[in-house]
Amino acid sequence: MRKRRPLLVNAGIALSPDAFQTILDADNDGAGDRLELLAAKAQHHSTYVQKVKGHLEGLDESSDDKERMKLWGSLAKTARKQEVFDVCRVACRFCLLYDDGRWKNTTGEPKNRASPEQRNQTDPNTQRDLLRLLAEVSFISAEVQTHSF
Question: What is the pLDDT along the chain (149 residues), one digit of tens a residue?
Fold first, then answer.
C-alpha cells in the first residue's frame, strides 16, 4: 500500500492542484486526544468544505466536466481497490461535486425542449453511464466512511 499511495495522491493533485492535498491533509486522522481530534476535524471540515465547493467554480469553462468526473470516479475506485481509504474519501468528495443536477435521465423527454442546465449535452447512453458512476461513487463514499471510525 505504501508504494501505491503516493501515485494515487499525485493523481488527485493533478486533477485539483489547489485543493486536493489540503483536503487530504484535513481528512487524515492525527494522533492525540479523541476530543481534540474531533474538534480539529470539525474546524477543518468547515474551512475546507468551502474550498471543495470552489473547485468547480475555479475550473476553466473549456474543461470537459464528463471527463473530469470520470477521472475522479476512476481515482476513487482505484484507491478503494488498493485500500487507500483517505485518498478514496477525498476523490469521492470531488467526484460527487458533479452530482448537482447537470446529468439528467433524458429518457421520455421531448427533444425540442432545451433548458439552461443542458449545457452538458450528451447522448442518453452517456447520461445514463454518468448517473450510474455517480451512484457507484456515492456507495463507495458511504462504504469508506465506515473505515474512518
Answer: 567 888 999 999 998 887 888 778 777 655 455 667 667 667 665 666 666 666 666 565 656 788 889 999 999 999 999 999 989 999 998 898 888 777 666 555 544 444 444 444 567 788 889 889 999 999 999 999 887 65
- 113 belongs to a structural domain: no
Find where cell 449535452 sits: 121
d(CA 21, CA 24) in angstroms, rounded, equals 5
What total number of domains does the chain contain?
1
Task: Give the residue numbers spanning the domain of 9.
Answer: 4-107+120-148
Return the C-alpha cell found at 135.
451512484
Tell me the pTM: 0.67
Task: Assess if residue 112 is contained within a domain.
Answer: no
